[in-house]
Design a protein that fits this description.
Layout lengths: L3 E10 L2 E10 L2 E6 L10 E3 L4 E4 L1 E6 L12 H10 L2 E6 L11 H11 L6 E4 L1 E2 L8 H7 L4 E4 L13 H14 L3 E4 L15 H7 L2 H18 L3 E3 L8 H9 L4 E5 L1 H5 L21 H12 L5 E2 L31 H11 L4 H15 L17 E11 L18 E11 L2 E5 L19
Parallel strand pairs: 1-4, 1-5, 6-7, 7-8, 9-10, 10-11, 11-12, 12-13, 13-14
Antiparallel strand pairs: 1-2, 2-3, 5-15, 15-16, 16-17
Length: about 450
């Protein structure tokens, strides 16, 4: 009657953690029951005390293919995602070449992804100056929404927008009710860093008020046009109060932060360790504790990796020059254990992580009716997770193209034992029994 039954004494469901049998048929969760007459058999898997989680969702990933596949690529990125329990992700429109700002460019990216996806993958379109006439075409083609930068993106062919550009774009997007994702930094002229090897000087070169001023702009425009606005990778706790006010006013505003802003603190980053460079930068411990509290209180909606890898030479690992180094944290595979390690210290439970790593991202991507929960009718994307087990991040277990991550040699809590995609076991204790089971995820603007 069913293709597969998974039994767990710790099934993480929308109403709590409980013993349950998850009945799977044709790639979907046919039912979730507390008792079953099917106690044993070749199609019944009893995972004991391990937790059964809904597949994780990461809406902020830079895959970099086509054009910069030597940075990452669909094959390695989606394999690392599956190893980390991420069953669905969304690729950002920049770092690839061509950047995803026109329909033809999007078609090139779709062709590059074909037969390479180990996890499900959706795509964000890009907003750059002068491409407002491409919004409708990209929307009809199925992008999940759009991404814009308010400061230089690091990629010259993906320039930042100005307020003038946003006045052209946001009324159009409001009519389709798709989100506008924004990298919020409004840069001002800065003196060169006195010491290019100093992390504290790098931190000072991208002050928090860049972020706070940019978020204030987006809140104002969100109120003017009622276009859904999503603030990516919030790092400045100074913006929390204005985010709270905007949400209390009912504005369609959502916010993410990233694992590295919660796990690491500026005080602990040594000079010359460019593996920690990202933008906005990792700030001080007091700031990051405020981010955690805002996440717990629901003012920050969820957590996403902003996985942004680069080859070793671009990270300037040997020189230690923060000014020259590519800014990006490579962490896709360690999304769950990094956040769980922080959550344990702060006495948060696993149900919080599912809100932050599954349910919230699903809503942003328009997948809340099919993914992000263990519930009847949802996709059978599932993760077997041992929350008490620890492991050390070593190069040989990393599936990213480059073994560069600030989590290297750190001990993390929580091991992904198995990952299921549409009811098919695609990861099993370090092995990939089957490959290329991922599907392209499109969004219907009318939903």
């Amino acid at each position: 009657m069913f293709d597969l039954v998974i039994k767990s004494r710790n099934t993480v469901m929308p109403d709590g953690v409980k013993m349950a049998y998850v009945l799977i048929k044709d790639g979907l969760i046919a039912d979730v029951v507390s008792e079953s007459t099917i106690e044993a058999g070749p199609d019944v898997i009893d995972i004991g005390d391990n937790m059964l989680l809904p597949g994780l969702i990461d809406p902020h990933v830079h895959i970099n293919e086509p054009g910069r596949t030597d940075w990452e690529g669909f094959d390695t990125a989606t394999k690392a995602a599956i190893a980390g329990g991420i069953t669905t992700l969304a690729d950002m429109p920049l770092n690839a070449s061509p950047v995803t700002v026109t329909v033809p460019a999007f078609e090139v990216k779709l062709a590059a992804a074909k037969n390479q996806l180990h996890a499900n993958c959706g795509f964000w379109g890009g907003i750059v100056p002068g491409n407002e006439n491409n919004i409708g075409g990209l929307m009809s083609r199925g992008v999940l929404g759009f991404k814009a930068f308010l400061t230089h993106s690091g990629i010259d062919d993906f320039p930042n927008v100005t307020e003038t550009d946003l006045h052209k774009v946001m009324p159009v997007m409001a009519g389709f009710n798709l989100p506008l994702l924004v990298h919020c930094e409004l840069s001002t002229p800065q003196q060169p860093a006195p010491d290019v090897f100093s992390y504290q000087d790098y931190l000072a070169s991208r002050p928090a008020d860049w972020e706070d001023n940019a978020i204030a702009l987006m809140i104002r425009l969100c109120g003017e046009y009622r276009c859904p606005v999503h603030i990516v990778h919030l790092s400045s706790a100074g913006s929390i109060s204005q985010i709270i006010r905007a949400k209390e006013q009912g504005l369609p505003l959502t916010v993410e932060t990233a694992q590295h802003y919660l796990y690491f603190n500026a005080e602990d980053i040594p000079d010359g360790k460019t593996v920690f460079k990202c933008a906005p930068p990792i700030r001080d411990k007091a700031n990051n504790q405020q981010l955690w509290e805002a996440l717990e209180q629901g003012y920050i909606d969820f957590v996403a990796t902003d996985h942004s890898p680069a080859p070793p030479n671009l990270k300037e690992l040997e020189s230690g020059n923060f000014t020259k180094a590519w800014g990006g944290i490579s962490s896709l595979q360690f999304s769950l254990p990094a956040l769980w390690t922080v959550a344990r210290k702060n006495h948060a439970d696993i149900t919080c992580l599912i809100r932050w790593l599954s349910e919230g991202p699903a809503r942003l991507m328009g997948l809340q009716n099919s993914k992000g929960k263990i519930a009847k009718g949802y996709d059978a994307d599932l993760v077997v997770f041992n929350p008490a087990k620890t492991f050390t991040v070593l190069p040989e277990i990393i599936f990213h193209k480059h073994k560069i991550t600030p989590y290297l040699h750190r001990e993390l809590y929580g091991v992904v034992e198995q990952t299921y995609l549409s009811g098919v076991k695609v990861f099993d204790n370090g092995r990939f029994p089957v490959s290329n089971q991922g599907k392209i995820v499109m969004r219907n603007p009318d939903e």
